[in-house]
Amino acid sequence: MFVFLQLRFVAVSLFICGALLREAGSFYLPGLAPVSFCEATPGDREPGDKIELFVNRLDSVESVLPYEYTAFDFCTDDKLKRPSENLGQVLFGERIEQSPYKEEPTIRWASRWDYILESMPHTNIQWFSIMNSLVIVLFLSGMVAMIMLRTLHKDIARYNQMDSVEDAQEEFGWKLVHGDVFRPPRKGMLLSVFLGSGTQIFIMTFVTLFFACLGFLSPANRGALMTCAVVLWVLLGTPAGYVAARFYKSFGGEKWKTNVLLTAFLCPGVVFADFFLMNLILWGEGSSAAMPFGTLVAILALWFCISVPLTFIGAYFGFKKPGIEHPVRTNQIPRQIPDQSFYTKPLPGIVMGGILPFGCIFIQLFFILNSIWSHQMYYMFGFLFLVFIILVITCSEATILLCYFHLCAEDYHWQWRSFLTSGFTAAYFLVYAVHYFFSKLQITGLASTILYFGYTMIMALIFFLFTGTIGFFACFWFVTKIYSVVKVD
């Protein structure tokens, strides 16, 4: 079934080798360290002057299972020299091996990258994606500005000018729920754990994309992006524990041991369990993407010996800090929430809230999925970082907009709703991933199908925590801000 060899790096190496043999004394193959060679004299070529040629993994459009070059009936070199691999290459099965084949190339040095660049999507589609996202952001920004500068400003002025109790009783809207708006939410333990893990993912994503934009994580260095992300996730256990502990304490929780254990093990445990099951399938299929047992132990060691202790340290400082002070007091008796219209009920609001953030990223998502499943190189990290910033702004503005409408309808349960409103973008991501599987891919076989949806579920969970955390913090800032400027007796 595997009818073609992924010749991307073979071609690149041939281009570079042929040009550099004529014009320079070294060459660089993406994923390998630069190598220097002596200039050959006519009729006298030493063994050390030979340029080694390397091959990449074997892929097929009908499967997501990569295989090593030596897994099939190809000629192999008797003196096999496998280059060292980083963690990211191991996770993706990027096995680079020495090839016995040689070829006299005719490609000029100036044209050495044409093979890759011609296979890449045109950047005009990327600019269309950016413009589409910017239009959505401008629309939301206009709506939020109208609320903040006109409606909300008038509300605050009217509330602060009330002189009698009778006037206050006649008022309605978001001020009436000031005694309940900071009431601890149901399942506060789970929400705080999600916020801690989401903060960890947010910082990891931001730093990784920032380094990629600076060129430190170039596609030429294969596996560097994944290696950086894993290392950052391990080192960011402290902010995860701190945020989870601080909000759990503000919610009135007292089971701090349970909180820190769930922060350290719940979401990472779900991801690892899914990944381990996918790895068992890869082992059974003999794929090069199967993580070796030693690497699996190393990942667990990083998790238990570095990430978990750092999470405990962050939780310790989070619980030592006093709880977050709210601008208004919370009443002892909860206020009854009036009957809501269809648009202000929880489920319709959550479903509508995820549409606009997804609209900002779906074009860029196509290229990302292509790079993962269709074996295309992704190199436009500047576009991706800009879309990342636009996504953060869109999630924040859409969630604030809906939060204001719900508070005006005297529904003060904003904590979980703000998290789920932005987090529901992950549901649209899942729908798009299913559409992409059936419309764009040619994958056959049960194992490949399970692997596709298994890894997609991991990405959806990470995306859910990431976007949900953005929505919660945006609404937390908004609610704290508006209730701190009104006079409350």
Automatic annotation (TrEMBL):
Q: Which residues form a coiled coil?
A: none
UniProt-listed InterPro entries: EMP70
The places in or outside the cell where this protein is found are: Membrane
Give the record's GO biological process terms: protein localization to membrane
Keywords linked to the UniProt accession = Membrane, Signal, Transmembrane, Transmembrane helix
Q: Does the keyword Transport apply?
A: no
Q: Where is the signal peptide?
A: 1-26
Instruction: Mention any one GO cellular component term assigned to this protein in its UniProt record.
Output: cytoplasm
| Superkingdom of this protein's organism | Eukaryota
Q: How does it sit in the membrane?
A: Multi-pass membrane protein
User: Would the keyword Lyase be found if you checked this record's keyword annotation?
Assistant: no
Q: Where are the transmembrane segments?
A: 127-149, 193-217, 223-248, 260-284, 296-319, 350-373, 379-407, 419-438, 450-479
Q: What is the first-listed, main subcellular location in coarse terms?
A: membrane
| Entry's family note | Belongs to the nonaspanin (TM9SF) (TC 9.A.2) family.
State the protein's name.
Answer: Transmembrane 9 superfamily member
